[in-house]
Every structure is written in structure tokens, then in C-alpha cells.
């Protein structure tokens, strides 16, 4: 008790004070007297002894630390603060003094002064995890102020990998992935052997869709720390995105084996089971995850996607009461409210469901702002095909089908139907077409003088058989269709349309993992839908572009007629198996993974009518565009 707070190592870089052996002996004697007086409860005598010791060696900041500790024991924060301030004057790099001042400032509700002390602490010792936690607690969330605080620290101490690491993590949390990438690369450059830095860099690459680079960081991290469960968490997520479900299952099980009571590991294992269609196993994993950590909000959200009855919804709402929402981050709160919305929806309380949806997306915009402008810029950047490609020879060994449209338009159902064909190879939602376009956009005339092997660029290392049919489900490819008659002349395009308000509501409810920040804004989602519809109208008049339009709402009402029409257009032999795609085992990591396990049904048609008030602003935007007159948009 007497030396409370004084036991830690003093990391001050100030030279020790010079004093004679006689003075040192007198100081040591006074300190012993002070300690004895404290033990006897004689505070006045103890204080007098400390003051006499300081008078003998006034340049010794450690004596002020001792006296400050004495005042803290007597609950005299003001006197303790004065001592710590004097210690800082004598030894500006005294970590204990700065950290103690920060605690005292916080006790007196002075966060601004606390931040100044914490800032100095981090400049002295950037790797002090407790200090970083205190800083975050003051700001309360990951916002521009917190990022500015760390940006200043990293600028003041650019050789600290730790400061770049924290800054990068907060920038990633706020959705600024390019800045996050730059600082994560700095952290790895400065200290390549820190596994945390590798995991963060890999996570950012994953968020950016650069999955090969992400896997490279996974391997580097695994070499540094073979039994680090977080390495396998990242590997699981990447393999899920790549559609390599066996590898994702292997990584998830490795994480659970390393730490069997990790709620995050069990959550990710549940995600893999969902993608594999193993519903019971997934529910079990999610519930185990919650039992270990009631704050594992990702598991609540996943369970809310598979509510078979109102009893399931009621039970999940009861489970969620054990989660303390006041301690959650914006990312976690968005998932928490999304799960609540799904429960209210299943219970038929659409008013509460709508309110939870608004809360969910409000929090989501805090860490992932709308990126509509990014997409619009990208679409217009590659809209026109360079004239220098005229006459160039492009070789395509594989047949290709592109599914395009708006997210949540029913494209995953179309993919599952077509996947009944054993010749079909699903490419997923990759940027393969854009990769080809970017390469051709920068190629000079000399490169185009020889035939271009399109598949070597488009498929990369993926191997397909000569008679395979490659299915590309990157819906944003609608913006690049004018390139197909030139570069992939035999390819085919399936344009999936759905009632626009049902589509927008589904996007708003989907809670995409990353890359679709616009989805948290109903108006920005409507603007993207309008852009997509306008472009598709224009592209359908291009010679040499083969496009088939299928309407999701008609498909789920009369599946045989609609599917027969699609299969006939593709020139495939008919099979009744196309009417029951749910019977074919098809792993999937998309937001529609639960729906494709069910028989074709129309249960999601007309859901928008329960959310009329929520959808009023985008409804007006759609009507004003004049592009959706073939749908009933009237309330």
C-alpha cells in the first residue's frame, strides 16, 4: 500500500541527479523514516520526511513520484498532481508521471488534459497497450478525432511501427482503406517480425479484394506464429471469399484447436458451416460462441438470418438481452441492430424492424461511409473501348456467361439454377473482367500486335477444362459490357431485374461485409440502381452483345416457364433438375446463402409494402427517373 503505483520500472531517459555520498545517505535515511511514519499512520511526519528528502536532492524526479504516491494513498489528488507535474518538469520522458497525470485528469473529468499526458506517454513508449486503451476510451469511438490524434503521433514519431499500426487499424475501422494500407505497410517495413502487423496488413488487403496479397501476409504471419488463432481467423475469411470452402473449414478448425474457448473461432467455424449448407452445425457453433461471449454480436446476426419461426425470433431476442450494447463499437452496434431488425421482421413488427434498420445503417456509415462516388467514377472511367483495340486479335478458350444487375436482385438464385449444369465453373464475384480491361487500357500498340490470350489474364492461375463454361457473377460488370463484343465476342450476359423497391430494401437489410458502403444509404443505393438501369438500356442496343433479361419476380411465380426460356436461350439441353437447384450441393459465401438452400419461392416478393414510410424518398427518386415504369411503385 505504501508504495502503491511505484513498483513499475521507471523508464525515464533523464540522467540520474548528481549528489554527494553524504547527501545520498541522508536522503535514504529520510525515505526510511517516511516509510516508517506511514506504516505507523503518522501522515504528517511522513510528508515532512519526504519534503526534507526533496530539499536535499531537489533535482531527483523519483522523490516527487514517491511523494505523489503518498498523496494518492491519502486521496489527495491535487497534491499528487502537483508532484507529478514537477516530476515531468525534471524528467520530461518519465512515463510513470505522464500516465499518472492522465489518470488524475480523467478522475477530475478533464479529458483534454488527459489526452495531452497520454500523447506524451505514447511518444515515450508507443507499445504501451494500456495507454492505447485509455486513449480509445476517451474518444469513445473510432472517429476523425481519434484518427487525427494518431496521425499526429505517427508524424511526430515516424519510426514507430506501433503508432503506424494503431493508426492503420483505426483508419480501416473508419473505412479509409487506402490510408490504412499505407500505414500498415509502414508498420511492416519498420518491424516485419510483428505478427500483429502482418495480420492487419492481410486484413486490409482482404477488404480491398486483393486476396492473393492477403494470403501472402497469412503465410508470413503463420511463419512468425504458427499457433496464433488470429492468423487462422484471417485465413478462414479469405478462403471463404475465394470460394475455397475446404480450405476455409481447415483453417477454422485449426483456430478452434488452438483455442477451443475462443468465441471468434467458433463464430468463424459457424460461418463456414453456413457456406457449406450445414445449418445445424452452424447454429450449434454460433450458440457456443455466444455462450462463451454474450458480446459476440456477429453470431447473433448470423442466427437472425435463419429464423424458421416466430419462436426462433423470440428466443433470439431473449438471448440478445445478455449483450451489453453500451460497450459495443459502431461496427458491433450495426450488427446488433441488424439482428434485432431481422427478429422484429420475423415477428411481423415492421415498424420496429424499420427503426432497427435505420439504427444499424447509421452506425455502419460511421465506419464505412458510402462509396457510391467510387463506383460511379470507376464505371465512367472504363465506359469507352479504346479505338486502338480495333483489329486486335483476342483468343478465348473458354465459354463465358456474365450475370449482371443490382446486388440482391436474385442473381444467386440464377447462379444456383445454372450450376446444375455439370460443365459450369463458377468464378464467383471476382474482378477478373476489370483486370482484363485495366491491362488492355494500358497496353501499347506493340503489345496488341500479337494475339492476346484473354483467358491467361481473366482466369489467372485457375485451371478449367476445354469444354467448361465459366460463370462470372460480379454484378458490377454491367458497366463494362461494351468491351465484350471486342474482347470476348462469344460471351453471353444475363441481366437480372427485380422490383426496385424490394431490391433496395433487401440491399439495406443485407449488411454486406465490406466494399458496399453505399448500401447503408437508401438514396445512394437508389442512385446506383438508376445508373445500372440506364446503362443496361443503352448496352442492349450494342451490336454483337448478347443479353437476356430475366425478371426475378416472374421467375419465383412461374419458375418452369422462366427457367425453360433461359435454358433455351443458352442452347442447353433441358432437365427438370433446373427447377430444384436447392438439391444440388452448392457452397456459397454470398449474402443469399440461406435463401439458396430453400426451394424456389416467392416469399420475398412485395416485402417493401411493409416498409413504405422508410422507402418513400428512394421511391420518389425511382419514379422521377422514368426507368421503372414497368413496375408498380404506387403505395
Radius of gyration over all CA atoms, rounded:
31 Å
**Shape call:** elongated
Q: What profile does the largest beta sheet have?
A: 5 strands, parallel
Number of helices: 30
End-to-end Cα distance, whole Å, is 71 Å
- The overall pLDDT, averaged over residues, is 91
Q: Low-confidence spans: pLDDT under 50, at least 5 residues?
A: 1-16
Task: Describe the overall structure.
With 635 residues, the protein is mainly alpha-helical. It contains 30 helices and 7 strands. It has helices at residues 21-39, 43-56, 61-73, 77-90, 95-107, 111-124, 129-139, 144-156, 161-173, 177-190, 195-207, 211-224, 229-242, 245-258, 263-275, 279-292, 297-304, 310-320, 330-347, 350-367, 372-381, 411-418, 432-442, 454-458, 484-487, 500-510, 522-539, 552-557, 559-570, 616-625, and strands at 394-395, 399-405, 424-428, 452-453, 469-472, 492-497, 546-551. The chain has a 5-stranded parallel beta sheet. The radius of gyration is 31 Å and the shape is elongated. The termini are far apart. Mean pLDDT is 91; it is low at 1-16.
What's the short version?
Mean pLDDT is 91; it is low at 1-16. With 635 residues, this protein is mainly α. The chain has helices spanning 21-39, 43-56, 61-73, 77-90, 95-107, 111-124, 129-139, 144-156, 161-173, 177-190, 195-207, 211-224, 229-242, 245-258, 263-275, 279-292, 297-304, 310-320, 330-347, 350-367, 372-381, 411-418, 432-442, 454-458, 484-487, 500-510, 522-539, 552-557, 559-570, 616-625; strands at 394-395, 399-405, 424-428, 452-453, 469-472, 492-497, 546-551.
Amino acid at each position: 500500500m505504501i508504495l502503491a503505483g511505484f513498483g513499475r520500472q521507471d523508464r525515464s531517459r533523464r540522467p540520474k541527479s548528481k549528489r554527494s555520498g553524504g547527501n545520498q545517505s541522508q536522503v535514504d535515511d529520510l525515505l526510511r523514516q517516511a516509510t516508517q511514519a506511514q506504516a505507523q499512520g503518522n501522515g504528517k511526519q511522513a510528508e515532512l520526511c519526504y519534503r526534507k528528502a526533496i530539499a536535499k536532492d531537489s533535482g531527483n524526479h523519483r522523490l516527487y513520484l514517491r511523494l505523489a504516491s503518498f498523496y494518492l494513498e491519502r486521496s489527495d489528488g491535487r497534491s499528487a498532481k502537483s508532484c507529478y507535474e514537477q516530476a515531468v518538469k525534471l524528467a520530461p520522458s518519465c512515463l510513470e508521471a505522464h500516465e499518472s497525470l492522465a489518470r488524475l485528469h480523467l478522475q477530475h473529468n478533464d479529458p483534454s488534459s488527459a489526452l495531452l499526458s497520454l500523447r506524451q506517454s505514447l511518444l515515450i513508449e508507443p507499445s504501451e497497450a494500456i495507454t492505447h486503451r485509455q486513449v480509445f476510451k476517451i474518444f469513445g469511438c473510432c472517429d476523425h478525432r481519434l484518427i487525427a490524434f494518431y496521425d499526429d503521433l505517427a508524424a511526430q514519431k515516424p519510426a514507430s511501427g506501433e503508432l503506424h499500426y494503431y493508426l492503420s487499424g483505426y483508419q480501416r475501422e473508419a473505412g479509409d482503406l487506402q490510408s490504412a494500407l499505407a500505414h500498415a505497410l509502414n508498420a511492416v517495413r519498420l518491424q516485419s517480425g510483428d505478427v500483429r502487423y502482418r495480420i492487419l496488413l492481410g486484413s486490409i488487403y482482404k477488404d480491398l479484394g486483393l486476396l492473393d496479397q492477403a494470403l501472402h501476409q497469412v503465410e508470413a504471419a503463420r511463419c512468425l506464429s504458427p499457433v496464433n488463432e488470429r492468423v487462422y481467423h484471417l485465413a478462414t475469411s479469405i478462403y471463404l471469399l475465394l470460394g475455397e470452402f475446404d480450405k476455409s473449414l481447415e483453417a477454422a478448425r485449426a483456430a478452434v484447436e488452438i483455442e477451443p474457448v475462443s468465441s471468434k473461432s467458433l463464430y468463424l467455424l459457424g460461418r463456414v458451416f453456413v457456406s457449406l449448407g450445414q445449418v445445424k452445425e452452424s447454429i450449434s457453433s454460433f450458440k457456443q460462441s455466444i455462450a462463451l461471449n454474450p458480446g459476440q454480436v456477429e453470431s447473433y446476426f448470423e442466427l437472425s438470418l435463419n429464423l424458421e419461426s416466430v419462436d426462433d425470433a423470440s428466443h433470439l431476442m431473449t438471448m440478445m438481452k445478455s449483450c451489453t450494447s453500451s460497450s459495443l463499437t459502431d461496427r458491433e452496434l450495426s450488427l446488433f441492430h441488424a439482428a434485432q431488425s431481422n427478429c422484429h421482421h420475423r415477428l411481423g413488427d415492421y415498424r420496429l424492424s424499420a427503426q432497427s434498420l435505420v439504427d444499424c445503417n447509421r452506425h455502419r456509415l460511421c465506419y464505412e461511409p458510402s462509396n457510391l462516388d467510387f463506383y460511379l467514377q470507376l464505371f465512367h472511367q472504363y465506359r469507352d473501348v479504346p479505338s486502338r483495340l480495333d483489329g486486335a486479335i483476342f483468343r478465348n478458350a473458354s465459354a463465358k456467361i456474365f450475370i449482371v444487375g443490382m446486388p440482391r436482385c436474385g442473381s444467386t438464385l440464377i447462379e444456383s439454377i445454372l450450376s446444375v449444369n455439370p460443365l459450369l465453373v463458377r468464378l464467383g464475384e471476382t474482378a477478373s473482367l476489370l483486370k482484363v480491361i485495366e491491362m488492355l487500357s494500358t497496353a501499347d500498340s506493340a503489345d496488341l500486335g500479337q494475339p492476346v490470350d484473354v483467358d491467361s489474364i481473366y482466369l489467372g492461375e485457375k485451371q478449367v477444362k476445354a469444354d467448361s463454361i465459366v460463370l462470372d457473377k460480379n454484378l458490377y460488370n454491367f458497366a463494362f459490357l461494351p468491351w465484350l463484343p471486342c474482347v470476348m465476342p462469344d460471351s453471353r450476359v444475363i441481366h437480372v431485374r427485380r422490383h426496385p423497391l424490394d431490391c433496395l430494401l433487401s440491399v439495406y437489410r443485407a449488411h454486406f461485409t465490406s466494399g458496399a458502403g453505399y448500401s447503408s444509404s437508401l438514396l445512394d443505393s437508389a442512385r446506383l440502381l438508376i445508373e445500372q438501369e440506364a446503362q443496361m438500356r443503352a448496352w442492349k442496343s450494342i451490336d454483337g452483345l448478347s443479353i437476356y433479361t430475366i425478371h426475378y419476380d416472374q421467375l419465383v411465380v412461374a419458375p418452369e416457364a422462366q427457367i425453360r426460356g433461359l435454358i433455351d436461350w443458352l442452347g442447353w439441353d433441358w432437365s427438370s433438375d433446373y427447377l430444384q437447384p436447392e438439391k444440388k450441393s452448392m457452397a456459397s459465401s454470398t449474402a443469399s446463402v440461406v435463401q439458396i438452400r430453400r426451394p424456389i419461392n416467392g416469399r420475398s416478393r412485395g416485402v417493401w409494402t411493409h416498409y413504405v414510410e422508410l422507402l418513400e424518398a428512394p421511391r420518389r427518386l425511382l419514379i422521377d427517373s422514368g426507368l421503372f415504369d414497368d413496375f408498380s411503385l404506387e403505395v
